[in-house]
Amino acid sequence: MSQPRVPGGDENTLELPCGQTIASGELDLGMREFECDCGETHAVVMDVHPPERFLPDFLVEVLREAIETTSEEMPEFDTPHLLGVVLEEFPEAVVAYDASENADVGYAMAWVTDFDSRRLHEVVVELVVELMEHAVSHADDDEALSAFEEEMVEFDVAEFVDQYRAERDLEAEDPYA
Questions:
Q1: What would be one Pfam family of this protein (predicted)?
Q2: How many Å apart are CA 116 and CA 125, to the nearest integer?
Q3: Mean pLDDT across the chain, nearest whole number?
Q4: Three-class secondary structure of residue 175 per DSSP
């Protein structure tokens, strides 16, 4: 993943998708988004945030069983893989920051997006649905593909995100409660 740097700047500085810069220490572990000087709200995700931030436990388990990773550092499907998919799909809207050499911040990777946290949640769900559809299409089972496509016609991503966020109470002080 890219490691943005400000030319001639401090290596602990992130250049955001909007062009603003912030110090890596401005991001804290409980942060899901922040109000930027550019006037927009940017989503913040860190490697220490669980994928259940975006997806139900059972789905995370299914993804972990079904997806083989190639990384020795991250052998199990996790948040960095989800954000890698988002980064791949929206390279201009996501900044990845490698903080593995900075013990002061408490995270090894952080991603800041042009999207606010709610829109990022929708994007993650949309991309996981696409990933699932792709996997089903490779099963050589036309009935399974038809059934999946029928289910997805009725699946409302925005409604799912609303319900999931209400269930997880993502506005609470403890984001993992």
A1: DUF5815
A2: 14
A3: 85
A4: coil
The answer, as to whether pTM is greater than 0.90, is no
pLDDT digits (tens, 9 = 90+) for 77-117: 899 999 999 999 999 999 999 998 888 888 999 999 999 99
Continuous H helices in the chain: 57-66, 79-89, 117-137, 142-154, 157-168
Domain extent listing, the chain: 13-173
CB 101 within 8 A of CB 24: no
Distance CA 42, CA 31 (A): 10
Helices (H) then strands (E): counts for the chain: 5, 6
Give the torsion sign (CA, 78, 83, 84, 85). positive
Share of the chain above pLDDT 70, in %: 89
Task: For residue 165, give both structure tokens.
Answer: 């966020």
Q: State in Å, rounded, how far the first CA of the chain is from the last one.
A: 30
Q: Which two tokens stand for residue 162?
A: 């609303």
